[in-house]
Amino acid sequence: APGAIERVRIDPATLAVKYKIIGMDEWIESGDRGLGTGDRESGTESNNDDPPITNHQSPITARRRRRDAILNPELKTSGICGSGIIEAIAELFTAGVLAANGRFADFVHPRLRTGLGEGGGKAEFILAFPHETSNGQPVTVHSDDVRAIQLGKAALYAGAKLLMNRFDLSAVDKIVLAGGFGSYIDPKHAMILGLIPDCDLANVQAVGNAAGDGARMMLLDRTKRQEAQWAARWVRYIETAVEPTFQDEFVGAINIPHATDPFPNLADYLAECRAQWSPERQEAIAALENSGRTSRADREARRRERRERRKSTGVENS
pLDDT tens-digit profile of 132-147? Predict the structure, then answer.
């Protein structure tokens, strides 16, 4: 919907936030003082080093965005959409606000609210302050939002790992993001989050509504229809609920980007971001990482026990 945040950038050094909303092409710099809708700068003149996002966008979508901008010249932030929350959580991780386990670091900053919820164990990060929004309420990323995204992305990643394991693959050469939602996801942020396996970012491609395009090809080309019918005969369905390794893959994939799987294509970028963190954030993240080492060791021990039990009962060979 017009006004929803769809792109987010958080400076790893200062935690300054800028975002794009649906219906406007300019970046909005969020501010904690009375700055109206925020200071805006052209997306093409952004001072970050991110490559331009070249997601698939239909002419109809482009016209709709231009229309919304014309009809809503004073458009203000009204919330956040799916692609926005994915980028926000990935940016919070690279900025040292979130630890790999999804917990918020405990440090003092105007945008960070800690001690929330029953027991005071939850927190939230402010993306847009009340004066920047249409309803006078801040747009935030809450601990519950992070957990929901972690569970969803872990299921997707675990499914991908099951397919890779089925074909004895340790890495993938190319990733294709299909569907309307896939067209709006930034591949780098999806990989940082651990939504997709590690891959050369140049080989991650969004193709839009692949199912619709395929249906049209079948209707207009008999050869393509025969090709699709041939391919359908070779499709095999994998039921994740009965796969003995799915739970282990799922648990490992809850971490950002993953508890154990390496992401060499992101290593340099993540190290560059981490070098810009303030000493306070570095200490806070280190404390969370150290506290999680014992629990990770316990989880690994439990996984080994489950594997041994499955072997002893013959589950893996059934």
Answer: 999 999 999 999 999 9
* Alpha helices per DSSP H over 129-261: 143-166, 179-182, 187-193, 210-220, 222-232, 246-253
Q: How far is residue 58's CA from residue 53's CA, in Å, rounded to a whole number?
A: 15
Percent of the chain with pLDDT strictly greater than 70: 79
Q: How many domains does the chain have?
A: 2
Q: Say if CB 105 and CB 50 are below 8 A apart.
A: no
The domain of 58 spans: 4-145
Q: Is residue 225 part of a domain?
A: yes
Sheet with 4-10: list strands edge to edge: 39-41, 27-29, 17-21, 4-10, 79-80
**How far is Cα 261 from Cα 123, in angstroms, rounded to an integer?**
27
105 and 195 both lie in a single domain: no
Q: Are strands 112-116 and 175-178 parallel, antiparallel or unpaired?
A: unpaired
Q: Rounded distance, CA 174 to CA 176, Å?
A: 7
